[in-house]
Amino acid sequence: MGSNHSHKTPVFDENADVNFDHFQILRAIGKGSFGKVCIVQKRDTKKMYAMKYMNKQKCIERDEVRNVFRELQIMQGLEHPFLVNLWYSFQDEEDMFMVVDLLLGGDLRYHLQQNVHFKEEAVKLYICELAMALDYLQTYNIIHRDIKPDNILLDEHGHVHITDFNVATIVGDSEKATSMAGTKPYMAPEVFQSYLEGGPGYSYPVDWWSLGITAYELLRGWRPYDIHSNTAVEEILLMFRAEKVHCSSTWSKGMV
């Protein structure tokens, strides 16, 4: 069984590999495309975490092995109060496991689906916290590429945390990303331009665009552009050029 832990301050004996047996499984809290997510407690420290199971065979069948290992590689070097931090990773014959911060406030998509009306002051707080996280990622040359309500979790105190680095990428100081990755309704124009027109590529600002789309959706309950997963790239670029985003008259000047 292989194991790994980050450079962060360890909460276990450094001389012993951390593995599945070091945790008590309490209950399942979700199911993803590759496996389930459980609340676990580390037996020695009694600290609570979320443990993500990723079935190796399913990863291979869906050609996601590279993305999974890239996510692990990126997350192992990160620690920030507004990220979902990775603390341990290990594997057995069937599954890979990621032990991360336990956040039980739900993701912002869930709250939107429950018709929660987000107050402007709350959204401003979210933007500030997410901006700090994005700024931190940029210092490590990381573009998240999938900022959206689904990938923003709330903790019990109402603070936000970015999760899911599955399509994140690392770029050098003068490099640009070129592949089309992310979720269409939240992707920036330059991502589509690079894909369709062979443009110069894109960099960190695409995450800020996604943050803007997310903030708009939290405030209004819908996105500024009527873009869906099956909307053609040509149609999306035309939409960006032709349509004007309408801000609510109830928003404060500072919000706009």
Automatic annotation (TrEMBL):
One Pfam entry name: Pkinase
Gene3D superfamilies: Phosphorylase Kinase, domain 1, Transferase(Phosphotransferase) domain 1
GO terms under biological process: G protein-coupled receptor signaling pathway; regulation of signal transduction
Keywords: ATP-binding, Kinase, Nucleotide-binding, Serine/threonine-protein kinase, Transferase
Any one GO molecular-function label of the UniProt entry: ATP binding
Residue ranges of domain Protein kinase in the record: 23-256
CDD domains per record: STKc_Yank1 (cd05578)
Cited InterPro entries: Kinase-like_dom_sf (IPR011009), Prot_kinase_dom (IPR000719), Protein_kinase_ATP_BS (IPR017441), Ser/Thr_kinase_AS (IPR008271)
NAD among keywords: no
Statement: the UniProt record of this protein carries the keyword Transmembrane helix: no
Binding site for ATP: 52
Family the entry assigns: Belongs to the protein kinase superfamily.
UniProt name for this protein: Serine/threonine-protein kinase 32B-like protein
Organism for this UniProt entry: Callorhinchus milii
